[in-house]
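Notes continue from the previous slide.

Worked example: a multi-chain complex. Inputs as given:
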Amino acid sequence: MHPETIEKIVGQAREIAATVVAAEAEAVDREAHWPEKSIHALLAAGLGGLMVPREHGGLGQGLFGLARVCEALGKECASTAICFGMHGVGTAVIAAKATPDQVERYLVPIGRGEHLTTLALSEPGSGVHFYLPQCQLRTVSPERFQLDGAKTFVTNGSHADSYVISTVAASGDATPGQMSCVMVPAGAPGIEWGGPWQGFGMRGNDSRQMALHAVPVPRGDLLGQEGDQTWYVFEVVTPNFLMAMAGTYLGVAGAALALATEHLSKRGYSHSGALLGQQPVVQHRLGSLWAELEKTRRLVYYAAEQGDAGGEEALQLLMSAKAEVADCAVKLTNEAMTLMGGIAYRENSKLTRLLREARAAHVMSPTTDLLRLWTGRALLGQPLLVD
Ligand SMILES: Cc1cc2nc3c(=O)[nH]c(=O)nc-3n(C[C@H](O)[C@H](O)[C@H](O)COP(=O)(O)OP(=O)(O)OC[C@H]3O[C@@H](n4cnc5c(N)ncnc54)[C@H](O)[C@@H]3O)c2cc1C
């Protein structure tokens, strides 16, 4: 896509972030409510179709566009960024092998901003090993499957219109990574929601537990072919997941640095008349943090561009980018807290929220440990999934 078009989309996201998202963010965190106004503003502006191919009425973006939009949103509210990001990842998974019927029922309404989807991969039993689903998809008739199991941390929880759900391949004999993905519409019989999400951070996510009791799934809602989805894990799910998260936490890190910079320029002392930002040690620390953020941002953008272009080292770059962002976001929010002192530490400062949000970057799968492990295996030419 032409860079001007990407910048236009990012500009639109920034505008909504600076107005609607910024205004809602504090209440979303305090009350742990799903960011309804922000998500609706994004869909109304046409950004819901970010990952829908142009021929189906969308904006036809890829990994770079997803990372950039999530970064713009993450600066104001990481919950909004991840809720939007998981919609984008779910859309990319649907689009990867959509049948004409799935295009009509899912991609076209998503492109029009009338449909919110999300990704339900994680399970209580397999934790961070999202590529090892235990949910069972059984064939009950030539036209229909039945789905049983449990999902956990389903972002957008009960607010989505549909769920992209991973299961053990229906054909049986599945090896690790051989999963199927199916679409389940909201309100399908047999869905039971767990209690409300009360996270340490990311408090607007509505990342809830979802039990699936004999949920009927028409054959037409299988994404791709039965059990041929090994490639979904590393070709579609993981790259998009990584860039949605990398963009979000890059936004969090950038917001922390901006707050610290503003504070250092304004905080003055009555005993000396000097500004805090005039102290060489503080200037030195700020300079180091800026470089940390900028080199991480460059890695994320390059990884996304390589991913979109199908570059040879794209997977290592994408995996390392999310791991580096997690380190960067935790470091910058922590260091910003030290630079800004007790004024930032006190109750309800924006930085305390950013610090809590940043911690999620390490525990959202693929986690930093898994990503480093997989990158090492990729460099050694070893299979990534051996757990
Ligand atoms: C805010 C938030 C939003 C989320 N949104 C979604 C979503 O929309 N969709 C979705 O499907 N999931 C989502 N998740 C789930 C997330 O991706 C993880 O699956 C979940 O956080 C795992 O938690 P756990 O306690 O089960 O981890 P565990 O599996 O118990 O792991 C605990 C720790 O052990 C480490 N570990 C485990 N095995 C290994 C190993 N073999 N090698 C090295 N280290 C290992 C992990 O890296 C982790 O740090 C979300 C989670 C959070 C916190």
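Summary box: Residues 86, 119-122, 127-128, 130, 153-155, 199, 202, 205, 207, 360, 363-365, 367, 369-370, 373, 387 surround flavin-adenine dinucleotide (CB under 6 Å). The two ends are 38 Å apart (CA to CA).
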